Amino acid sequence: MRIYSIKNILILFILFQLLIGCKKNNSIKYSFFVAGHAYGSTDDKAPGLHPPFQQEFQKINNNKNIELGFFTGDLVHFPEPEYWEAALEDLHKINCETHIAPGNHETYHPHLFEKYIGKYYYAFEKNNDLFIILNGNENGWNIEGEQLSFLKNTIAEKAGKAKHVFIFIHQIIWWQKNTEFGKCTPNSFMHMAKTLNFHQEILPFLKTIPKPVYLFAGDVGVFPDKPSLFHHKTNNVYLLASGMGNNKTDNYLIADVFENGEIKINVIGLNCEEGFECLGEIENY
């Protein structure tokens, strides 16, 4: 009888440990938010970030899982010191670490971007994941030359240790008219080259990475008659766009990274009377 009881105890202990392991694997390891076109409406000339987005700061700060925030371009309406300083003052109200991928509005006066932000593209590692900020303004939305070498070298050196690769850029560099990649029209085609190297060079390269790759763009959301969200998966590569400014479908994203490696992209609507999930799942876009 005593031996039988010990066996039962051991079985229960093993089952308990398995349940703990399952719970841990399904829990959120960390989260980050992604905000596109964060100066908001083109009609609002006031300095600072989009007011409806500012109202989310407390929610972001109260979410203890959120460790990082990424702004995918057009943080300032006008690239003047007054606008930069107002935007950065708003950013300081967010408790987590933030990063900025330059938009076309930020690069009208390059010396100011370098003064207030610094690098146009760079990479860093955190939580066993690789994060890459890119500059789509440099070569007409093409990633080429020194920046392409930087991207490939960074992937070669650091992606092997990472569970995921997250890339942030302003322009929808995959845009392609009359294809599934053209469903989400950018806010602006400013400085776009006649031909883009994404489908011929960048996407094939990203597909060679033996890890999930998430590419976030932010030049959407200004016009109410155009999509403010985009999602497309090809092989291991996820293409996503999100932005704000039309005061109807304004949104930003929160990415939950789970212990078991799964990723959940949550769409947070800013104009939702019935709740922040009113825009549905990003996979539907």
Question: Can you offer a commentary on this structure?
Answer:
- With 285 residues, this protein is α/β, with parallel strands linked by helices.
- Helices cover 27% and strands 23% of the residues.
- The chain is built from 7 helices and 11 strands.
- It has helices at residues 2-25, 51-54, 57-62, 81-91, 110-116, 145-158, 198-207; strands spanning 28-35, 66-72, 97-101, 122-126, 129-133, 165-168, 213-217, 229-234, 237-242, 251-258, 263-269.
- A 6-stranded mixed β-sheet has the order 4-5-6-7-9-8, with helices on one face.
- The chain is globular, with a radius of gyration of 21 Å.
- The protein starts with a helix and ends in a 16-residue tail after the last strand.
- 39% of the residues are buried.
Brief characterization of the structure:
Helix content is 27%, strand content 23%. The chain has helices at residues 2-25, 51-54, 57-62, 81-91, 110-116, 145-158, 198-207, and strands at residues 28-35, 66-72, 97-101, 122-126, 129-133, 165-168, 213-217, 229-234, 237-242, 251-258, 263-269.
Largest sheet: 6 strands, mixed
Query: β content, as a range?
Result: 15-25%
Question: Helix tally?
Answer: 7
- What is the number of E strands? 11
Strand line-up of the largest beta sheet: 4-5-6-7-9-8
Q: Give the mean pLDDT.
A: 91
In angstroms, what is the radius of gyration? 21 Å
The assigned structural class equals alpha/beta
Task: Name the shape in a single word.
Answer: globular
First and last CA, distance: 61 Å
Following the backbone from N to C, one meets helices and strands in this order, namely HEHHEHEHEEHEHEEEEE
| Helix fraction by DSSP (H/I, runs of at least 4) | 25-40%
Contiguous runs where pLDDT drops below 50 for at least 5 residues? 13-24
